[in-house]
Amino acid sequence: MDSRDKQSRRRLSQIDKNTSFHQAFHHAVDGIVEVLRRERNMRYHVVMAIFVLAIGLYLGLGRSDWIWITIAFFIVIMSEFVNTMVEAIVDLAVGHHFHPLAKVAKDVAAGAVLVAATTAVVIGLLIFQPYLFQLLGW
Ligand SMILES: Nc1ncnc2c1ncn2[C@@H]1O[C@H](COP(=O)(O)OP(=O)(O)OP(=O)(O)O)[C@@H](O)[C@H]1O
Question: Catalytic: which of 52, 69, 73, 80?
Answer without folding.
Answer: 80
